[in-house]
Fold this sequence. Notes:
With 161 residues, this protein is mainly alpha-helical. The chain has helices at 19-28, 43-52, 56-66, 76-84, 91-111, 114-122, 136-139, 143-158, and strands spanning 2-5, 8-12.
Amino acid sequence: MNAIYNNEILVTDDTETTIFDIIHNVFSQHDFSSERQEKYHSEVDLVGLVELGFPTSAYEIVAGQLNLPKDAIGAETTIRNRIRNEERLNAEESERVIRLLRVFTTAKNLYGSSEKAIEWMHKPRRFIPGKEATTPIALSALDVGARLVEEQLLRTTYGVY
Length: 161
């Protein structure tokens, strides 16, 4: 029924989920002194979060939850150094986290569970005719790729092929 990371419930599977729910849960499960979970309720708030930089400790939770590859949001060495130095992600890396959370949220709402959504995000498929199959996670490294993934999810949701 619940997706769990380090014994902490991040997303319940029995309700429709928004990206704001996930961010709220990640930030409320931990003591982020500079983060106030009630602050993230709109796209405007997300712009502020991206500009400020996603906390690396919060990213570690998201990466663990989604079982992200080490290079999902940037160069592995760079991300590892940011985590070790307790730095925030830069705007580009933060935007990639938000993008992956959007794709996850859409998949979770379609498939009805976090586990199924995560499994779907890791399974290679052909999104682009004539190109090799790739995972939704890899394709979501680019904004246009994430849009393509979300479009596929919405087509599946509404039965449009």
